Amino acid sequence: MEDKKQMKVVAALGHSALGYTTTEQRDAVRVTAKSLADLVEAGCQLTITHSNGPQVSMIHKAMTELHRIYIDYSPAPMCVCSAMSQGYAGYDIQNSLKAELLSRGLSTPVSTILTQVSVDPYDEAFYAPTKKIGRYMSKEDADNEIKKGNFVVEEPGKGYLRVVATPKPLEIMELDSIRLLADHGQVVICCGGGGIPVIIQDGALQGASAVIEKDDIAGKLASDLSADVLLILTSVPYVFTDFGKESQKPIRSMNIRQATEYSAQGQFGQTDMLPKINAAITYLNSCRNGRVIITMADQVMAAVDGKSGTQITA
């Protein structure tokens, strides 16, 4: 396996690496930080992105309820909730990773960059939103959301949920800053939760009522940085065929063609594994000599050495 010195690694952290509440996140990132610190200690140039689904939903709920109780406070738009979640998740990752590095005698700087990502205002996702966020609402609250121009869906027996668009990312606005810090030896945490979605209008950036899928931005970030490895950390050690069935088998390695064939067979879950496979293909089509690894956090070093996890190449 290649020398890890200066190997460019983009690590994408999923929900299992962050938890779902403030206390779960604090405890989870302390564990995840050990695996990330292993990469830094081995000499890798590490850039980190992460999910924020539970976090941004929690913040959106809190801001909406604050407005309901105290009318003076206005509810926060999705782009602001996304920014809040980036800062709060980034803080926990940055804090835990820095502490772990210092405990090993490493002074590597760790920085979090609040990252904006441009999207196309005419992306088809804006016409058919699907991403559920926030709290369950009554019919009256749902009607009020509709009057404001928002989309809602009903879940029988539970209530109504707001749904937002998931447009594709176009440009990482802070890419030059991310690259500059990474090239100067810093661990950079960026593009959290897919990035803060913005639309370029009249030379200015306007926040968009949307959420960018974390896997989409992971593939783009790794491509833009010309990373050697896109490391996707999830809750399973491998990608499987027939997942959840008695016949399930781990896929230890595959290429783009095989990944596409498995996808066509419906082997990957639409909302969990398929987005990761699509991100892998996006990255590998751009970086033909790159490598994608999908595995769990505690398998990181073995996976980078090619001894664990699902390895995907062009």
From the structure above, extract its key features.
single chain, four-stranded mixed sheet, 17 strands
Helical proportion, percent range:
25-40%
SSE order, one letter for each helix or strand: EHEHHEEEHEEEHEEEHEEEEHHEHE
Strand order of the largest sheet: 3-9-2-1-12-16-17-15
**Main β-sheet: number of strands, strand sense, barrel status?**
8 strands, mixed
Describe what this molecule looks like in 3D.
- With 314 residues, this protein is an alpha/beta fold.
- Helix content is 38%, strand content 25%.
- The protein contains 9 helices and 17 strands.
- The strands form 4 sheets. An 8-stranded mixed β-sheet has the order 3-9-2-1-12-16-17-15, sandwiched between helices. Strands 8-4-10-11 form a 4-stranded mixed β-sheet.
- The longest helix has 26 residues, at 78-103.
- The chain is globular and about 60 Å long.
Topology:
Layout: E1 8-13, H1 22-41, E2 45-50, H2 53-69, H3 78-103, E3 110-112, E4 116-119, E5 131-137, H4 139-147, E6 151-155, E7 159-164, E8 169-172, H5 175-183, E9 187-189, E10 196-201, E11 204-207, H6 214-224, E12 229-233, E13 239-241, E14 249-251, E15 253-255, H7 256-264, H8 273-286, E16 291-295, H9 300-304, E17 310-313
Parallel strand pairs: 1-2, 1-12, 2-9, 3-9, 4-10, 12-16, 15-17
Antiparallel strand pairs: 4-8, 5-7, 6-7, 10-11, 13-14, 16-17
